[in-house]
Amino acid sequence: MDAADLAIFRLQLEGIAERMQEALSHAAFSAIAREGQDCAAALFLADGRLLAQAKALPLLLGCLVPAVRGILDAFPVDAMREGDAYLLNDPWSGGTHLPDLSVVRPVLHEGRVVALTATILHHQDVGGMAPGSVPPDATDIWQEGLRLVPLQWRRNGEPLPSIQSLLLANTRTPQAMAGDLESQWSACSRGARELAEIVSGLGTAGFADASARLLAEGEALTRAALRRAKDGDYVARDALDGDGIDGRSLPVVVTLRKRGEALTIDFEGSSVQSRGPVNAAPAALSAAAFYLLRTLAPEAPSNHGCLAPLTLRLPEGSLVNPRPGAALNARTATVKLACNALLAAWAEADPEGAPAPNSAVVVVLSIGGEDASGKPFVFTEVIAGGAGAHPGGEGAPGIATDVGNGRNMPAEMLEAAAPILLERYEVRTGSEGTGRHRGGAGVRRVYFLREGRAMVSYRSERHESRAPGARGGGAGAPAAAQCRRADGTVIDLPSKARFEWRAGDRLVIETPGGGGWGEGSTEQHSEDS
Amino acid sequence: MTRWSLGIDVGGTFVDLSAVSSAGERRVRKRALGADGPGGAVLAVLDEFLAAEGIAPASVDRLLHGTTVATNALLERRSPPVGVLLTEGFADILTLARQDRADLYARTVPPQPGQALFPEQLRHGIGGRMDAAGTELAPLDEKAVTEAGKALAAEGVQAIAVCFLHSPLNASHERRARELLAIAAPGVRVSLSCEVDPRPREYERALTTALDAYVAGAVAAYVRELEAGLKARGIVAPLLMRSEGGVASVEACLAVPLSLAMSGPAAAVNGLCALLDAEAKDGLAIGMDVGGTSTDFAVLEGGAPPFGESLRVGDLRLRVRSVDVHSIALGGGSVIAVDAVGGLRIGPRSMGAWPGPACFGRGGDRATLTDAFLVAGLLPETLAGGLALDRALASAALERDVARPLGLGVPDAALAALRVANAMLADAIKRVAVGRGADPREATLVAAGGGGGLHAAAAAQMAGARRVLVPPSPGLAAAHGLLGTAQTHSVERPVDLPLDTEAGRASLARVVRDLLAVAPPAQHPAYAAPKASVFVEACYAGQEFSLEIPLDPATDLSGDTLARRFDERHRRVRGQAFPNPRRVRAVRVVQQHAAPAVPPPPAGWRGEAMRGSGAVVLSSDDTTVVVPDGWTWSREPATGVLVLERS
Known about the structure:
The structure holds two protein chains of two kinds.
Chain A: H1 3-27, H2 31-34, E1 39-45, E2 50-53, H3 58-74, E3 85-88, E4 100-109, E5 112-122, E6 151-155, E7 158-159, H4 161-169, H5 174-228, E8 232-240, E9 250-259, E10 262-266, H6 282-296, E11 310-313, H7 331-349, E12 362-370, E13 376-384, H8 411-417, E14 420-427, E15 443-449, E16 453-459, E17 480-484, E18 490-492, E19 496-502, E20 506-510, H9 522-528
Parallel strand pairs in A: 10-11
Antiparallel strand pairs in A: 1-2, 1-5, 3-4, 3-6, 4-5, 6-7, 8-9, 9-10, 12-13, 12-16, 14-15, 15-20, 16-19, 17-18, 17-20
Chain B: E1 4-10, E2 14-21, E3 26-32, H1 37-53, E4 60-66, H2 69-76, E5 83-87, H3 93-96, H4 114-117, E6 123-126, E7 129-130, E8 136-138, H5 142-155, E9 159-163, H6 172-184, E10 189-192, H7 193-196, H8 202-232, E11 239-241, E12 247-249, H9 250-255, H10 263-273, H11 278-282, E13 284-290, E14 295-301, E15 307-308, E16 311-313, E17 316-318, E18 322-323, E19 326-328, E20 334-338, E21 344-350, H12 369-375, E22 382-383, E23 387-388, H13 391-406, H14 410-435, E24 443-448, H15 452-463, E25 467-470, H16 477-483, E26 487-498, H17 502-516, E27 531-540, E28 547-551, H18 561-574, E29 582-593, E30 611-613, E31 616-619, E32 624-627, E33 631-635, E34 642-646
Parallel strand pairs in B: 1-4, 4-11, 5-6, 5-9, 9-10, 13-24, 24-25
Antiparallel strand pairs in B: 1-2, 2-3, 7-8, 11-12, 13-14, 14-19, 15-18, 16-17, 20-21, 22-23, 25-34, 26-29, 27-28, 27-29, 30-33, 31-32, 33-34
Helix pairs in contact in B: 1-8, 2-8, 5-6, 10-16, 12-13, 12-14, 13-14, 14-15
């Protein structure tokens, strides 16, 4: 295989992953998977090393690596058969939070497993104390939903009946779960079919050789990028508003130790684990670390080789590696903040062109209820804050950053699924950090419940803090949220809240702005020009 | 009297004319674009052609045209801004887009493309609201529409886009807004989302509608000027090529100007499909049209181009039905440069048609790919269209821009640049093939455009392909394709019907019958009677993204034929069929009037030999083909197609 053949091999693998991703998100039933793209697809070698990924949400892509490891630890690859599929969501077996179910299917050639296809998808509801299974007031994992340790889900292409009925009995939306599991199986099957064709073209040895070379390329490009940056220790700190139970803020501290072409990421100094659900499973933090490495050499093939230079230290019993049983559904807040801290620390190692911090927030809003006729609905959506400004220009308003890339929920799709009107979706003018280049503004979304009743799970961050500016730029505005009752009462919501929503009430959500870059005022500049 | 049909296509560098008479005679003409731009060039090439061939204008009774005017407006973004009316509270959706970013691992996140394109002061939120069932919750704020119309007219906008929530289900507010705007902003063009893109998801529909308004001014000015020029000569009004792969009347095209976004590339793909040989038709073919500023790729499966519902133009993704063409910024006018670390870079900047490459001698002061080919001895002294090339100017530009920075001689520098260009083309060939699940090594590469033959064999070899076709007069592929393109009219209606019940299928049958009743007349007696094709978009209940399947109203509206066809399609595209009930979400009827058969164009290959082997350079009236060492070539006597094969 020459360099041109290897390039085709890479494109073929990436093409398979992309087509799995499209099959997955287009066949999906869950609104957050279908509209928000909260789902991901990837290809793995039989030993669990990542071979190729779709261009999807980095947080989920990163989480598939430990999920596949967890499956393989429980089910030796030699015992896997054509038509088998495996499932997990347990955070202490490689999962991230309970709504994200990973499905893994083996790819066989001449009777032996040569590779795995894997998908992860945010399901609408996996039970627990609140519709949508992301309760901001949970204090243990059992309140958050059904916990699935690695298990075999399908044999000969069919779901195992007892497992399937157990799954569907533990969700408020069994039809959506059944449909979304089929979407995951379907995408894995599509990928497996295509990958098997490639393996049969190359032969087992040829496929192994090409894969090894592709992983080596990922590693070499990542190491070369590390080598170019300054050696040193770089520290960044931030803090969560609180865990939704106790009011006090929770520090997140990260130290990057960059030596030659190796990097250690250490979260020593971060808060001990919380009672509330802002703990993050190791899978989620490894996704943030993977993200940082991918930004160093974006041209590299996205595979296990890129992870080779990394050592990740997550203190046990901390916010970023909680002990079994901890609540952790709201891990997005912690991971976004941690990833932002990673990028801020790296900006010291490689200051050229570094942007100001982004808002570090993605609001996760989950609403379940019923309309006046008693027909139930559940949906989850993600709402982004602003991006950071940079030496070359302003930051974008209301846009997914770093480990996130979730899309918004169109009003037309939301309103078709629930008795809700989205009354406004607009740029939150004035929330951006000032400076020579302005940060990206946050957004405002206003929801009106037309009839029936609902339970709202609201999870945000930065109600009490601001995204800082860089090089003299101003900080972005904090987040805010209100419930405006039909009777005129206005309730200011904290950054994590669960409450009852009644017909005629309005919910107003404002996301924070990104940091500005450089001293000076944008207005003056625009008048000058 | 002999009557003539003319296909005229405007590219980045040339305007091409392909003609066929009622007696089956073929003629071609080519002309370099002047500084006066494409509009004048069309009439100029027409005048030259008629004079040179001694054809009376009155004997031209069919004129087909492929135009880049809409594409250029979208790419260049120099058109005046347009007004946009959106539902109150949603005036920012064009800048917020879908919240996701294109480049996952870039350090900085740039604003969405809509931010610069649609300035805040020209976006108005308008009161009035429908719900998701299409029921009016609040009446249209007519005063706000009128005030916005007046304000926009005062700002001088020439077009306004209107996109209100849920308009695909109830368009009454949008239609009323158009009436009010006609009074408040007289003479201003109005694009309604319910007409441009009647599909759910407000951002995608708003962007597509706003871009329709954005290109409207440039398209209308161009088309009206062309029409007037033709009328002055006593020549019929043109039919224009649309992205969806058929020609239509001027009025039909001006109703949705964005439908012309891929006019030229769609015509070129049709031209290539007409000349595939059996092997390319049965297997996988990849069209590669190398023009002056860009190269277009299309994967042809079963001898036909694939269509898509979304179209990428630069960083914009439009929701329009279009032939699936992938473009890269590499063509004969692409600038060759050496970057700070000694890397050889080609494009994306192009010298375009004017002033063009240095060797055109029109003041182009940068080395381009065409200059490199000339210096490498692969181009004649005079290009098709009568453009004389100046070797000394090409050599000087390459010396200054490439040879000196690299420390090479001029000939070596030229060859190095050509290798880089071929590698870029090979990379794109691999991407488009793999993107459709095909293996580039099994493809036949079909080279078009004046530069296609120069690159094809080398690029194919780098992509692992072993076979290349160069059709006769490849520089005129799009103009040839226009002559054989059907006149097409399509109409779509959103529905939400069960596919599995008799009652659902009966409702579906009624919608199909309604839509089939709409058939515009043929624009010319040569076109056949219309043939209707019906398609439905279906999904499983609970899904929101549909898949298109064909429907034969005679046989498919009873029993489970349609359900099984949908399951099969779902299995192929998404991996598996589901046990869920199925729903139909849209019906589309396409009426096609087939074009008369067209004999192959003149090839004009130089020399008598019919086969041979490389390394050799072959030439014809309008192109040059490089056959590398290790390749053989042969000419198909019936069609004039040149077949290259790697031995």
